[in-house]
Queue: 3 jobs
Job 1
Amino acid sequence: MTIAAKPTTAGVDKQELEARVKAMYREVAEAPQGEFHFEMGRALAERLGYDPRALDRIPTAAIDSFAGVGHFLDLAAIQPGETVLDLGSGSGMDSLLAALATGPGGQVLGLDMTAAQREKAERLAHEAGFGQVTFHAGYIEAPPFADGSIDVVISNGVINLSADKPRVFSEAARVLRHGGRLALADIVTEKPLPESVSCNATLWAACIGGALQQDDYRAAIEAAGLAIETWREHPEYRFLTDSAQGASATYGVKSISLLAVKA
């Protein structure tokens, strides 16, 4: 994603943030057994609610690099033949699961700014025969797709990393057809974060520093012309490091998933 200025995040160094995000998620792709602020892999995916039978049908290496924060594919209700856009597709786990739902007659477009993630996802999709899945270089604030060309937009633990969340939601609404769905999981807060957290690029890259207060998050979605139909929390998601856990406890940092529809 691109790191654009926004009043509530003006103090964060946007170039440093993008560099840290790219570096962290390159490690997620290349060394998923490393130490991170967050959990990864199949055990996390199953605890969040992913269907083990579906996970068995996609490459293990994509699951190993899964760093999502919730489960939302049941909310997305992807149908055969639909076109799906995955914002911040990473190593491709959600994209490949979406492809199981679209079938060969559908299309899944993964969008990610980190080359190592895209390259891994492309290789895994090709090796597993997912011809309906393609991965594209780009930023979630500027998806390079036509107006009204997408049936479902999905995203997992990525929008919190953007410094221009209203633009992300506006662009999601732009590419969605009328009646199209936005289904995602993300990190939000109960209390607004202080500058000591929101201006910390390391905590941004760890999916905490950029988290938006939940009422503001909902308002940004609705301002884009999307109606929220379902909102749920994922208490089973947790951060690993002391600094991340401390911020979570103090400011109510938590995982949510939601479904919103374009009128």
Job 2
Amino acid sequence: MTSGVGAPNRARISARTLRTDRWWLPPLLTNLGLLTFVVYAGARSFMGKWYWVEEFGYLTPFYSPCLSDSCLPGSAHFGTPLPELPGWIPLGFVALPFLLGFRLTCYYYRKAYYRSVWQSPPACAVAEPHGSYSGETKLPLIVQNAHRYFFYVALVVSVVNTYDAIVALTYGLGLGNIILLVNVVLLWAYTLSCHSCRHIAGGRLKHFSKHPVRYRAWTLISKLNVRHMGLAWTTLATLLLTDLYVMLVASGAISDLRFF
């Protein structure tokens, strides 16, 4: 090897690491967290039922926007310009690929799965098992450079989810409404705290004094950006819990707690 831990000018240490602490625990927990969400979200996306509560107007984010004739009556808030879909295509297929792309190319998630899934490297002072590294210059990692474009679509989807939550409020107020609203607020916080959003707001400005509005936006986004990692995990949890609640109410497993 001419680079990395096996380079000629590096110390010859046969052990992968000399660390004696549980350095493997954070990557393991990250893997388990990501795997839990991927398995649940994948299963629910293809389930094709229990995603709409007609009585209360609850629509799970995993199926929004629902745009085909396969959608249950009332769940297609933006009409049904698409015909019926075969069972192997998720009803939320319009937004899901872009949201997946937005998450996969997110700066925080790159850090998370580079360390845990690809082990590149798994922890500080722990040698990675790969013999070479090309960075984000070749497929598939070169796709990471499309993060800004996925961000634009994520903004549109956030607007759609906000509209869904507002529509549900026209049916009254229940626990499901609060869950939908909290999820939407946190999704907006995660989306706007994105590094691309911060760069769009003020990344190319040379004189902040000449652009006070953009400077103010950049300042606010920068404060939110500090919490981007926490929001990344929190929104995974709220998406899962929101969908789970809608599924349980739609299936009749539980009753929605109504306030009025």
Job 3
Amino acid sequence: MARRRLGFWQRFAVGLVKPVMTVWTRRTWRGQEHLARDGGVIIVANHISHADPLVSAHFIYDSGRWPQYLGKASVFRVPVVGWILHRCRQIPVERGSVEAVRSLDKLVAALDEGGAVVIYPEGTTTRQPELWPMKAKTGAARLALATGAPVVPLVMWGPERIFDPRTSRLNPRPRIPVTVVAGDPVDLSRWADAPPTRETLEEMTDAIMLRLRDMLAEIRGGTPPPLWARPARPSVERRQGEAA
């Protein structure tokens, strides 16, 4: 990344965060070549810890891109904090209201400007007890369908050792092992011209999350559970009884 392209507050954030993360973590980075240096890209990541944004931002910055995260709009209204976030090119998002449509427009604009937008499709840290990915919301799929921007999967394992959401314990010791891997863009070509119906968006979202789950299994080992529990099909006897 050309340092001259960064503003003062972006450089300030890097100077504040990167030295801390360099000491705090022992890093294994793989797949940085999948983050093209130019052009809009949607980065979708698994979410296992509140430390994820620090770890993923370090990886993305070292890959030559400036990460743009989504944040609750209310945080951007906090004096000083919101002002800095705006100048660091982070993106406020309204949730649960008609303003969410305007938020999508902001994301589209960021991608049109060549930004690297980071989305946690699950919307929160996973509720799976072993921190595997779970069924996600459709925002990333909707954005991909609206823009055609590549969707690059990013998986992390290790941030939960920094802060474990299951116990709310912060680990301050240095050189905590963290692994971050980026993969080839998710192939969403079969939905390229599809209308943004609920079915289409859910199918795209499942394709994204299954890719994240399988990539995570490669770096942490073990057998991942399903992303969701499918509803039980009624028995033949029950269906016959209801029809009678």
